Task: structure prediction
Amino acid sequence: MKRRTILAGALTVATLGWLTPAQAQDKVTLRLDWVFGSEHSGVWVAQEKGFFKDENLDVRILPGEGSSVTVKLVGTNDVDFGYATA
Result:
C-alpha cells in the first residue's frame, strides 16, 4: 500500500512538471510601408485567421508613410517590426 502511494505521488509530481502556466500574449507593433493595400493581404489574413494569436502574439498593425520611414522607426525601436519594399 505504501509503495502505491509513493508511486502515485511521484506520477503526480511528474505530471505537474509537464504543465505550463498560461502565458500572456506578447504585444508587438507592425508598421507597414504605406496605407493598407492588397500587398499586405498576407498580414491581414494572418490576423483574421488568428495565426498571430496562436503564437501568443497580440499584433497591432499600423499604416505607414513610406518604407524609409518604416525602416527608421524599426531602427529606433519605435515599432517592433516593419514591412518595407525597395
